């Protein structure tokens, strides 16, 4: 899912944990799934930001160049205004857009 087009809220929201844990049956497993996805989204966002900011990098920055670089500031502000990775991951989980599996449960089923 493209995090730039996410319809996730921009601020923290309250979730019913019982409804959130229904697909897995375990709230701790649910939190782990959402946390891992949030880490993936965070890494992707960081890589994209670094690529865009790398265009502005120069070897010998002076004070005048730093103050005049408005485009770089606008890019940084844009990324700051995006929803946080945990909110995006939670929204993806609620909408059923995350694929996950529990290898330990699958292993137990095969051994039984």
Structure description:
- The chain is mainly alpha-helical.
- It has a domain at 17-93.
- It is 62% helix and 0% strand.
- It has six helices and no strands.
- It has helices at 17-20, 27-54, 63-68, 70-81, 85-94, 103-111.
- The longest helix is centred in the middle third of the chain and has 28 residues, at 27-54.
- The mean pLDDT is 80.
List keywords for this structure.
112 residues; mainly alpha; 6 helices
What does the secondary structure layout of this molecule look like, with pairings?
Elements (H helix, E strand, L loop, with lengths): L16 H4 L6 H28 L8 H6 L1 H12 L3 H10 L8 H9 L1
Helix pairs in contact: 2-4, 2-5
Summarize this entry quickly:
With 112 residues, this protein is mainly alpha-helical.
The residue fraction in helices comes out at 55-70%
**Residue fraction in strands:** under 5%
Number of helices: 6
Structural class: mainly alpha
- First-residue to last-residue Cα separation: 36 Å
The H/E string reads HHHHHH
What composes the largest sheet? Answer: none
Radius of gyration: 19 Å
């Amino acid at each position: 899912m493209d995090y730039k087009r996410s319809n996730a809220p921009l601020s923290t929201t309250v979730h019913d944990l019982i409804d959130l844990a229904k697909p897995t049956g375990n709230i701790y497993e649910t939190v782990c799934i959402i946390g891992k996805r949030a880490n993936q989204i965070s890494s992707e966002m960081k890589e994209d930001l670094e690529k865009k900011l790398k265009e502005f990098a120069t070897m010998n920055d002076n004070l005048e160049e730093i103050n005049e670089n408005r485009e770089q500031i606008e890019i940084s502000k844009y990324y700051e205004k995006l929803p946080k990775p945990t909110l995006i991951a939670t929204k993806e989980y609620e909408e059923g857009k995350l694929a996950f599996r529990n290898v330990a449960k699958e292993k137990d089923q095969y051994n039984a």
